[in-house]
Automatic annotation (TrEMBL):
Coiled coil: none annotated. The keyword Transport does not apply. This is Protein kinase domain-containing protein. Residues 335-588 form the Protein kinase domain. Gene3D superfamilies: Phosphorylase Kinase, domain 1, Ribonuclease Inhibitor, Transferase(Phosphotransferase) domain 1. It comes from the Eukaryota. ATP binds at K363. Keywords: ATP-binding, Glycoprotein, Leucine-rich repeat, Membrane, Nucleotide-binding, Repeat, Signal, Transmembrane, Transmembrane helix. The chain crosses the membrane at residues 240-262. It is found in: Membrane. GO terms for molecular function: ATP binding; protein kinase activity.
């Protein structure tokens, strides 16, 4: 790597780190070493170790200033950099217009910082950009016409002070979109049913589908009127008149919403009454907790009911994935035959057959003290992070006493069953492939949700389900709150005060790796798998650790030992010493690449 590039990177990091001296990364990024060959932390290069591809410095407690010009004005760097990620720091400053020179960028993640100022027009010139996250900062002013970037498939800008109208995006391209809690105004461009109200909430002057607030002819013009008033010095007489009109209109809208709410309240009381009837049908069980207390082998009529928040307006089911659960209604769930299939420490799990033949599972979470508002917000954030190997909730229900989550039923069981059930063939290549997929999925979720403090919190092989294609899917992501995670069994005494919750998932994943390698249960006859593996390795009997069936299929011991080393690093008692999920994923992919190369050379 050229000296100029090294020097620029070191200076860029020094500015990002700020002057508090706490995080002096220049110690790690040394100019007399090579960013690629010497593996500078957070820097990833091309296969030839010649060019910088990615700079990923999420959650490094950086509190300095972003100097985009430094990176993007240096031709060799601008020509190779595809991914810049600085999520979850305390970085200030703004996005300089020079960002337009970093033309190769496909991902720009700046969420959860203290960045401010306007969004430069040059951002809309990044034609390769696919994922843009500027959420949870202090950005203000209008957006440039980002709809010109045809390949953009993620745009997160929630929790800023952005204003003006929303560009005319083609929403069918997006898997994530959120502009909630800003000051956007005017008509929402047609979302064609791809996104719901939660992507637009918290913008008082925004109207039209999917928000409940309808646009009048006047409010359609509001965005334009506001833009022109921003340009002029002060409101003219005409404008004052017009705004008074808006104010009157606002009052009418508020009255309309209040009327609607009153009607809904009446309707919800009816639903509640229906549920109560169901309760009496089943022998008058406790009204707030009517899930069956015994496991029923036979499919029975639904045993659960939902009550309203201490007489307040009862919520209905909030559907998060319209594609999979378009017509799903709370009444349907309550009426459908249900079977208790699990009673874990988080609550009970029911398998429910809907009228239309669709099979879902309903997780009823117990003892989660999270407020309804926080729960809803959490669900909305969760529903934005979509990964093909993470099972997203289809819908949820929330009242003070009840929290229900609805997932698609996965008929092929769990990794736990695959490992410890009766099936015999579960070969090494498949185990390694499953480990790589889960690691990649968790890396994605940590990158997307870590800044919100949302982690899995309860990783174990029974929460890894096998989908129709027998590929692994992480289920129940984010179902446990952070507070609960602090008291999870994975919490270790070392450094518990400053516990990094992301590292709890790394621990859970390490245990799954140990299960894959040993084929043993996590706890058996009082013996803890992690302790057992560590003691056997200490005694230098590493070969004894591995599943006998792997030994008999002549799986590569070298690669099994490599994976074991990854697992042991993940279950380190000190959370700080554990690698990040991203590092774990890279290590497993290297082992997988070796495995694939050896299979090819054998052929
Ligand atoms: N969407 C789903 N489809 C099919 N099976 C599922 C689904 N979700 C969970 N399961 C299976 O149902 C069983 C019970 O799940 P549950 O989540 O209640 O138990 P758990 O994972 O042991 O406990 P907990 O997650 O509460 O600690 C597990 O075997 C799990 O693999």
């Amino acid at each position: 790597v050229e000296d100029e590039v090294k020097r620029t990177l070191v200076q860029f990091l020094a500015q990002l780190s700020g002057n508090d001296g706490q995080q002096n990364f220049t110690l790690v990024w040394k100019q007399d070493s090579d960013p690629c060959k010497d593996h500078w932390q957070g820097v990833y290069c091309d296969a030839q170790n010649m060019a910088i591809k990615r700079v990923l410095l999420d959650r490094f407690n950086l509190s300095g200033t972003l100097n985009v010009a430094m990176l993007c004005n240096l031709q060799p760097l601008a020509a190779s950099l595809t991914f810049l990620s600085l999520d979850g720091n305390k970085i200030g400053g703004g996005i300089g217009t020079e960002i337009g020179n970093c033309k190769q960028l496909t991902r720009l993640h700046l969420g959860g910082n203290q960045l401010s100022g306007g969004i430069p027009d040059s951002l809309a010139m990044l034609n390769n950009l696919k994922r843009l996250d500027i959420s949870s900062n202090e950005f203000l002013g209008p957006l440039p016409d980002l709809s010109r970037i045809s390949g953009l498939n993620m745009f997160l800008a929630q929790n800023n002070h952005l204003s003006g109208s929303i560009p005319a995006f083609d929403f069918s391209n997006f898997d994530q979109f959120n502009v909630s809690f800003n000051n956007f105004s005017g008509l929402i461009p047609d979302v064609h049913g791809y996104f719901f109200a939660d992507s637009f909430l918290g913008n008082p002057e925004l109207c039209g589908d999917p928000l409940p607030k309808k646009c009048s002819g006047m409010s359609k013009l509001l965005g334009q009127a506001q833009a022109s008033s921003e340009e002029s010095k002060g409101p003219s007489k005409d404008q004052i008149l017009m705004y008074s009109g808006y104010a009157a209109l606002g009052v009418i809208i508020v009255l309309f919403v209040v009327l609607k709410l009153c009607r809904r309240k009446k309707r919800d009381h009816k639903i509640e009454a229906l549920n109560r009837i169901e309760v009496t049908d089943h022998g008058g069980a406790d009204k707030t907790s009517n899930f069956s207390s015994e496991h029923k082998a036979e499919v029975s009529r639904s045993e659960f009911s939902v009550t309203s928040e201490s007489g307040m307006v009862s919520q209905s089911l909030i559907v998060l994935s319209r594609a999979a659960a378009n017509e799903l209604k709370l009444e349907d769930l309550l009426k459908a035959p249900a079977e208790l299939i699990g009673r874990g420490k988080n609550g009970s799990l029911y398998k429910v057959m809907l009228d239309n033949g669709m099979m879902v599972v309903v997780k009823r979470i117990k003892d989660w003290t999270i407020s309804s508002h926080d729960f809803k917000q959490r669900m909305q954030i969760l529903s934005q992070a979509k990964h093909p190997h993470v099972l997203s909730p289809l819908a949820f229900y929330c009242s003070k006493q009840e929290k229900l989550l609805v997932y698609e039923y996965q008929q092929n069981g769990s990794l736990f069953k695959l490992l410890h059930g009766t099936q015999k063939t579960f070969d090494w290549t498949r185990r390694l492939g499953i480990a790589a997929i889960i690691a990649e999925a968790l890396t994605f979720m940590h990158q997307e949700l870590g800044q919100h403090g949302i982690v899995h919190g309860n990783l174990k092989s029974s929460n890894i389900l096998l989908n129709k294609k027998m590929e692994p899917c992480v289920s129940e992501y984010g179902v446990l709150g952070v507070d609960d995670q602090q008291t999870s069994p994975f919490t270790t005494p070392i450094g518990a005060g400053a516990l990094d919750v992301l590292k709890e998932d790394v621990y859970g994943f390490g245990v799954i790796l140990l299960e894959l390698l040993t084929g043993k249960l996590v706890k058996s006859e009082g013996i803890d798998l992690t302790d057992w593996v560590q003691s056997v390795v200490r005694e230098e009997w590493t070969g004894e650790v591995f599943d006998k069936s792997l030994i008999s299929e002549y799986a590569s011991e070298e690669r099994m030992v490599n994976l074991l080393q990854v697992a042991i690093r993940c279950v380190n008692r000190s959370p700080q010493a554990r690698p990040t999920m991203n590092q774990v994923s890279l290590m497993i992919n290297t082992i997988k690449d070796d495995e694939e190369k050896s299979l090819i050379s054998e052929v």
